[in-house]
Amino acid sequence: MMEFAWWYWIIAGFCLIGLELVVPSFTIIWFGLGALVVGLLKVLWSGFPLAGQLFLWTVASISFTVMWFKYLKPKVNRTHSGQSKEGIVGEAGIIIRGTEDSYGRGTVRFRIAVLGADEWGCYADEVLQVGDSVRVVDIEGQVLKVTKI
Which of these, 3, 60, 82, 98, could form a disulfide with 34 (CB 3.0-4.6 Å)? Predict the structure, then answer.
């Protein structure tokens, strides 16, 4: 029967961890750490059977991966949606295209560009007239909700 020495697992672990530098998937590293766990256990228990080594490597690797994704991985908003809200809510501008009713969409201009644009589409719960001063209270996609000030 094939026998794996402890240092096979250690080298395999470091190779997998090093492979993470080439292929940055942040999953290979957990399989490398699993191999290191098996290698360290194999140092302590030289008669550890191969089936047990493979089972431990599988369980350790999956456990590290699950722990990363469930507990350790920072909660990242990958869509970055809603991040623009903090940068634009509260800004004041002037209506340069008004609305005929409260369902219409107007255009607000800011003195200084906000989030890369100085003019934004907007709406309000009330009719907006050209020259009205408004303040941004919310953003929905690419349209601002404003109120008169």
Answer: 60
- Torsions phi, psi for 62 (to 5 deg): -65, -40
| Interacting residues of 14 by C-beta distance below 8 A, sequence separation 6+ | 32, 36
- Tell me how far the alpha carbon of residue 43 is from its chain's centroid: 39
Q: What pLDDT, in 10s, does the model give residues 1-12?
A: 567 889 999 999
Beta bridge partners of residue 119, listed in sequence order: 109
The pTM of the full predicted model, rounded to 2 decimals, is 0.50
Say what the pLDDT of residue 31 is.
94
Rounded Cα gap, residues 48 and 19, in angstroms? 27
Tokens found for residue 68: 């990363």
Query: For 45-91, what is each residue's pLDDT tens digit?
Result: 988 899 999 999 999 999 999 998 888 766 655 544 556 677 788 88
Sign for the CA dihedral angle at 35, 54, 56, 70 comes to positive
CA distances from 142 to 45, 89, 105, 129, 147 (A): 62, 13, 12, 21, 17
